[in-house]
Write a structure and sequence with these properties.
Blueprint: E1 5-9, H1 16-27, E2 34-37, H2 43-54, H3 58-71, H4 74-89, E3 93-95, E4 103-107, E5 110-115, H5 123-127, E6 131-134, E7 141-145, E8 148-152, E9 161-166, E10 172-177, E11 183-190, E12 193-198
Parallel strand pairs: 1-2, 2-3, 5-6, 6-8
Antiparallel strand pairs: 1-9, 4-5, 7-8, 9-10, 10-11, 11-12
Helix pairs in contact: 3-4
Length: 200
């Protein structure tokens, strides 16, 4: 599943604590192929700088590995490997390119376009995508237009994120998930058909 699941995080808009907590939770989910920040501010850079400084460098990993191989116990070695895996997980976090550029992702047969402000999209950008995800919004939104759809998880201050999952049958599920991990809304794209469900 890890190759077919992406999380999208709305603009933090000054809510750095919310972004920190969200990143910690998502980085712990190894099923995610990517975590994409949809904001156009510097919040992600600050959060990532803090994490990068706290994580292991390659040199310190090798040095500690040698020390533990000679004198460490199994628990200490496990802890080092877990720390290393957490460091590598930071590479899954992405931010959008500066406008008017946009990010394009292929999830099997589905073409996903991601942008902060959907107003910068050209007609061809929309025509060639199955899903358009954007970050500039005051609330979550999902709307189907013919064979394609628009989705935003809304601002991070609302406590929601979005997640895209390729199901076993090839369908694409677009989910709105709250801070507790519960699915608030789920849309499933099946080629030309869409199923709608709301979790309660």
């Amino acid at each position: 599943m890890s190759a077919n699941r992406i999380a999208v995080v709305g603009s933090a808009e000054g809510a750095s604590d919310a972004l920190d907590g969200t990143l910690d939770r998502l980085l712990g989910d190894e099923s995610l192929r990517q975590i994409v920040y949809l904001g156009d501010d510097e919040a992600l850079e600050g959060a990532m700088t803090t994490r990068t400084r706290a994580m292991l460098s390659q040199d310190s990993f090798l040095e500690r590995s040698v020390d533990l191989a000679c004198s460490g116990d199994a628990d200490a070695i496990d802890a080092l490997l877990l720390e290393r895996r957490a460091t590598q997980r930071l590479a899954t976090v992405r931010r959008l390119p500066p406008a008017p550029a946009l990010a394009v992702e292929m999830l099997e047969k589905w073409i996903v376009v991601m942008v902060h402000d959907k107003g910068v999209l050209e007609e061809d950008d929309i025509a060639n995508a199955h899903v358009i995800i954007y970050g500039s919004s005051r609330k979550p939104y999902f709307k189907r237009f013919g064979p394609r759809c628009f989705f935003t998880p809304g601002p991070l201050s609302d406590g929601n994120i979005g997640r895209l999952d390729i199901e076993d049958n090839g369908d694409l599920s677009i989910r709105l998930i709250d801070a507790s991990g519960e699915i608030v809304q789920s849309e499933t794209l099946q080629g030309a058909a869409t199923k709608f469900s709301v979790s309660t």
